Amino acid sequence: MERITDLNKAKKIMRGNLIGPQELYQKKRELGIYIPSNYLKEPPPIPYPKEVLQQLRSDYILIFGASYRDGSQLNIIKLRSHFGFNPDKSEPCFYNQDWYVRDNFVNYKYIENKWYLIRKSPYDNARGKSLKEIDKMNIKAKRQLPSAVLATYIFFANYFVHNGEVLWKYDYIWCSDTDDNGDRIYVGRYLDPKGINKNGFNIHRFLTINSLYSYVDIII
Description:
about 30% helix; three-stranded mixed β-sheet
């Protein structure tokens, strides 16, 4: 299968599920990003065959990775700095939590200036399952888990490019990252379905039971 090199052809295939350099450039202020001029004139080749895009166009987003507004590499901490965490001031935003601000996965994992293809909605048959259980499932389109920074970036980019569309509105999605303690990261659920918590893009960790966990008792 030949690789796609023509952006206009990819746009026709993806039917709106494509966010390229031009679309990002139009929302650069809202997103706090920078798109080098050479990528606007000649975006890198799209590394996915047309047959793959045709198969996945309804359920996936094809998106180009941007830099931070000052030209540096984009990470979660920079996105958090730009969007904040108070929905009373502006939305979209992050959920107000700070447990992760010193962790490596938010400070030293970056978005690259390249194309990414990520699924828009979780697999229904994978809900409530552990990663070990998911690995045993026959999900043909499965490739690998997205990084937390990629999922975060796509959430905000999609929101502005697609007029307030909220990805993973009530859902959490597993990410490829772990925190500095080795616990798995999951993100998403911008809205609380019970309406108790404020709006915000959540970043959480799934605690792994290890030798640090034990118990104490009392004598009765």
